Amino acid sequence: MNNIVNKKLKNYRYERKFHITNLSFDSIENIVNIHPAAFSEIFKERSVNNIYFDTNNLTSYFDNIDGVAKRKKTRIRWYGGLFGLIKNPILELKIKYGLVGKKLSYQVDSFNLYSHYKDSILNSFELFGHNSIPKNIKKELESNNPILINSYKRKYFLSGDKKFRLTLDRNLAFYMTDKALKTSGKVYDDSVIMELKYDECNDLSAEKITNSFPFRLTKSSKYIMGIQATLVS
Questions:
Q1: How far apart, in Å, are the Cα atoms of 221 and each of 53, 73, 111, 152, 225?
Q2: Nearest to 209 by CA among 37, 68, 89
Q3: Is the pLDDT of residue 110 over 60?
Q4: Which of 26, 112, 205, 226 could hold 148 in an S-S bridge, CB 3.0 to 4.6 Å?
Q5: Residue 15's closest CA among 173, 172, 194, 153?
Q6: What are phi and psi of 226, to 5 degrees?
Q7: Is the full-model pTM beyond 0.85?
Q8: Residue 78's closest CA among 89, 65, 66, 67?
């Protein structure tokens, strides 16, 4: 039985998260820099942007809230400016199986995203016309609509043994959106999200990493945070 499970989880990884609300970003970064795992910055800070998709009944949202073991999250991600011409966007399907997950990525055609001060002329389904996306996934996406847009600044770190990646996210902003990708309801969050990412084979060593941080592991999803901030509250 364990062999069957291990085969299913091949290429899956862990993402351990810390939602930090009581420290400045500089203080958190200093803690990362003096960690025994010898984390070092490997990429300059950049802006990360996402459009999250869900069904009209918010299936992905409630699967997460209800703790469904196997669940999926769909988003389009790009880097740089949030509005204007979006170049090199990527469709990502994040598949969770208990505590581990994997990501499927597909190229999406460039498109324009306007602020809420302008009318959008883009039908969201045009985003999924790229030939790299399998037909079965395109069919599945027909029942999904853009629900939430978010953006944040991200810093990237790698442990000295190169087995653990760590990211720090700050300046979180969330926007409600409609089917035409017209945004409204902007909400800011001044907390910091720290994520520790590693392959399943390194899980036994991960406890030493997490225990050396003065933070508590939390269940944290920016999609859930955004929905609760813009739609639920």
A1: 14, 10, 26, 13, 6
A2: 37
A3: yes
A4: 226
A5: 194
A6: -70, -40
A7: yes
A8: 89
